[in-house]
Amino acid sequence: MTKRLFPVAVLLCIGMFAYAPFLIINAPYESTMGLVQKIFYFHVSTAITMFVSAFVCGIASAIFLFGRRPGADRVAVAAAELTVLFGLIVLASGPLWARKAWGVWWQWDARLTSTLVMWLVFQAYLLLRRFGGPGSEKLSAAVAVFGAALVPFVYWSVNMWRTVHPTTNVVPSLDPSMRGPFLWCLVAFLLLYVLMLSARTALENRRARLDALYLALED
Amino acid sequence: MTTFFTAAALVVRKDLLVETRSREVVYTSLLFAVSCMLVFAFGLVKEGRVVADAAAAILWITIAFAGTLALGRIFDRERQNETMRALLLAPVPRAAIYIGKFAGVVLLLLLVEAAVVPLVALMFDAPLFRHAPLLAGLMVAGSLGYAAVGTLFAAMLARSRSRGTLLPVLLYPMTVPVIIGGVRGTAALLQPDVDIAMARTWLVLLLCFDAVFLTLALWLFEPVMTE
Amino acid sequence: MDFTSLTLTNVSRHFGRRRALAGVNLTAEAGQIVALLGANGAGKSTLLSIAATLLDASSGDVRYGRMTAREGGHALRGRIGLLGHDLYLYPELTATENLRFFADLYALDSPGDRVAAALASAALQDRGNDPVSSFSRGMRQRLAVERALLHEPRLALLDEPFTGLDDVSSETLRARLSALRRRGAIVLVTTHELEAIEPIVDAAYLLGRGRLERLAAGAGSLRDRYRRQAQA
């Protein structure tokens, strides 16, 4: 059933992204920042997707470690790569927005900084997997579990760190008429995430099967 | 049957015994910490006066760096003759071994801090001892958090390739809340109009971090150390 | 917490695409000394690590009596003794301190006496207070064997125990293992020193590229039989 659902979902996703620009163009202008603010629809959606991915990775890793299911580890790898990917999009789009809106590329905004820390954690996951040698699946799973648990602490600490020094760059609260387009973009990105996750996991599954075949060949 | 805490205590005692024989980790960590402070001084001291809030930063970053070095060395030792395997083979809950190692790391960190805190106070003219109990609380809470994460990762990586470079890469992002909490909490105590409430809030954050991550590490140690 | 057999059923272990063990079947009973022979890299150390609960098998079943490692928990580990390639000794500590640490960790009765007996057995009574880093290879090997057997394990797993031992020490080790066997232990030994193990071995297995087969009985010494089968 999932096989038939996949192409349908892809088409749906493409459709959503094709329609999104129209929604964004027709969305109301934000009072202080004007056109530049419209980056927010993609920027925040990607950020939310990134954090969802971080939790998916953490939970899958916990299942791998405690439930001893090798399939969970494959999901975790896919989720970690996607966390890094979506994180990169957030970290690239953030400064673009900041530059136009507030004149500086980076001003240690609480959310952007938290994203950077989480991005580093999951990038470390990938590095460990790549360079850690045999047995690094379990080690990286522990990193992912820690990473997922770290999210609230990073938020808390970076937020407190920033609010002590009052900043002039306040992210505006959401105008109700912006809610519609934002939710559309959010759903589009989450759908994209799910599609990429299943594709990447399928690749990982195939790699595992290939390894098993190589092993069987030796017998 | 050895109980949990007896086993942990035995591990700590053994580590202390090994360390008193060679004193390698203590000497190198202390010397490294002082060198680190020196390097920071060149960066952060302008016209003989230290940039505001730099003392807190220097203190915590020095300890973080020295801690990473010490962690690497402590677990390298267990790797030398594969004694970690002998420990894992013992009829004790494996989490007890983690606690034993953790306690050793905390003791080392506190020792380094005992040296670095007065030095920073002296060399950077920082009134660190004005609110000594609160400062001590921040240092201990921060050390516990750093050690909790560090001990698990260093133990995990002891058998890996590239363990020397991977430990800092893993450890620093993971201990960001500890660094922020420690530096800002200490800075709150150092500013001219001392902000006790702020320092206390940071202490609470550090303690929550300690509780969560120590528990996680205890859970994860066994599955992660069986190959 | 005691068991009278070690049974490996269809145990396999791979590291990525490299297979270390393939469908290993082995049963060792109490009161047996079993030799595991094979070329380097054949998987002998992997097999011992799995039997010692330090390594999980990729597939297959390992039972101690009727228990699995998970059911046995850390109490089971107390009945297993492992001697690895790397000796598991702390070079900065003295021989006595090393043994005493493990004696305390294993919660042995009268640890002081046990340590003294172990030192005597290793012919190191006079060197008890010297750091292990000052020992020769042979001395370390003797001490490492004693450390592994300090708690009189039910299952003794020894990886190349005869390395670096002279004739006298080899004879002492053989006597030690025979005494263990008399007390009903299961002893698994990997070695290249076939002549050293030959007088006391009950059963021998050949491990080749991950596969285990029983060494056929036949004419000639253990080494002759090994050579014949290994080449086949």
Q: Going across the biggest sheet of chain B, name each strand in turn.
A: 1-2
Mean pLDDT of chain B: 90
Largest interface: A-B, 32 and 34 residues
The sequence of SSEs of chain A as H and E is HHHHHH
Strand content of chain B: under 5%
Radius of gyration of chain A: 20 Å
Q: Helical region count of chain A? A: 6
What structural class results from the helix and strand content of chain A?
mainly alpha
| Main β-sheet description of chain B | 2 strands, antiparallel
* Apparent shape of chain B: globular
Question: Structural class given helices, strands, pairing of chain B?
Answer: mainly alpha
Question: What pattern of helices and strands is seen along the backbone of chain B?
Answer: HHEEHHHHHHH
Oligomer: heterotrimer
From the N-terminal CA to the C-terminal CA of chain B, the straight-line distance is 25 Å
Cα end-to-end separation of chain A: 35 Å
Identify the overall geometry of chain A. Answer: globular
Helix content of chain A: over 70%
Summarize the structure.
Chain A is 82% helix and 0% strand. Chain A has 219 residues and is mainly alpha-helical. Chain A has a domain at 40-165 and 177-202.
Kindly describe this structure.
The complex is a heterotrimer of chains A (219), B (227) and C (232). With 219 residues, chain A is an all-alpha fold. Chain A is 82% helix and 0% strand. Chain B has one domain (4-225). Helices cover 82% and strands 2% of the residues of chain B. Chain B has nine helices and two strands. In chain B, helix 6 (132-157) packs parallel to helix 9 (196-225). The mean pLDDT of chain B is 90. With 232 residues, chain C is α/β, with parallel strands linked by helices. Chain C has helices spanning 44-51, 69-77, 95-105, 111-121, 137-149, 167-182, 194-197, 222-231, and strands spanning 5-15, 18-29, 32-37, 59-64, 80-83, 155-159, 186-190, 203-208, 211-214. In chain C, the strands form two sheets. Chain C has a six-stranded mixed β-sheet, with helices on both faces. In chain C, strands 2-1-4 form a three-stranded antiparallel β-sheet, covered by helices on one side. In chain C, a hairpin with a 2-residue loop joins strand 8 (203-208) and strand 9 (211-214). Chains in contact: A-B, A-C, B-C. The interface between A and B is medium-sized, with 32 and 34 residues.
